[in-house]
Amino acid sequence: MTGMDSSTAPLTSTIVAVAVTGAGTGIGRATARAFAAGGAHVLAVGRRAEPLHETAAGHDRITPLAADITDDDGPELIVRTALERYGRLDVLVNNAGIVRGGALGTLTPELIAPQIATNLIAPVLLTQAALPSLEASGGVIVNVSTSVGQRAWPGNSVYAATKTALELLTRSWAVELAPRGVRVVAVAPGAIATPIGEHQGLTPERLAALRDWQLAHTPLGRIGRPEEVAWAITQLAAPSASFVTGVVLPVDGGAVVA
């Protein structure tokens, strides 16, 4: 596919090109597919090629890109690839995140550093690399946080802290970038049916206990679906939401307000 002429492409009337990190599974996969179903071209970014190809299977508007967002050249590679393929970038979804649980007293640099690198530093550097393109298109940055970051999460304080920091970045960037025509929003998912627990290395018993705890703290009484979070992301990024910026929208079945 050849690059599109950004000088003739519409700026704010439609979403042409989207980049989604952590697009190999869960919320990232659902988000990539939702944007593609809406007519956008999507660069699906993740560390592992095989899940990305599964995300793209049957969706010819999705392009997989195996890249590590924590690599020194990761942000530049992602932005360059989007521009080479699509000629522009309208939406950046900072979805990639990792969890390394541990109670205070058991935390080590090996547990802390990867979470800060992936969940906080990488979105900052990727957004910074994408900013000129987003400014040119009147684009949108969507950060994916967690609703638990607004409460206590014993045993996962570092992960929750990185996501809470991402919410502060959302509000700060919204004010900072508004004069440049770029909106910044966030979604804060609650208990969602994704493989993040398996990726964390939880045993089936611990995963079941976590789900029980989540259900007990979710007023709607069920686990959410990745597609429900993807819906919120696409709606906040849509041109019809052009007066919305700086918001952090919980998608958590009422957990934050319970």
Order of helices and strands: EHEHEHEHEHEHHHE
How many helices? The count is 8
The oligomeric state of the chains shown is: single chain
The profile of the biggest β sheet is:
7 strands, parallel
| Strand arrangement in the largest pleated sheet | 3-2-1-4-5-6-7
> What is the helix fraction of residues, given as a range?
40-55%
Structural class: alpha/beta
Low-confidence stretches: 1-12
Q: What is the beta-strand fraction?
A: 5-15%
Radius of gyration: 18 Å
Distance between the termini: 48 Å
The count of β-strands is 7
pLDDT average, as an integer? 90
Shape: globular
Concise synopsis of the structure shown:
This protein is of the alpha/beta class.
Describe the structure.
The protein has eight helices and seven strands. It is globular, with a radius of gyration of 18 Å. The chain is α/β, with parallel strands linked by helices.
List key phrases describing it.
alpha/beta; 43% helix; 258 residues; disordered N terminus
Per-chain topology:
Layout: E1 17-21, H1 26-37, E2 41-46, H2 49-56, E3 62-66, H3 74-86, E4 91-94, H4 109-137, E5 140-144, H5 157-177, E6 183-189, H6 196-199, H7 204-216, H8 226-237, E7 248-251
Parallel strand pairs: 1-2, 1-4, 2-3, 4-5, 5-6, 6-7
Helix pairs in contact: 1-8, 3-4, 4-5
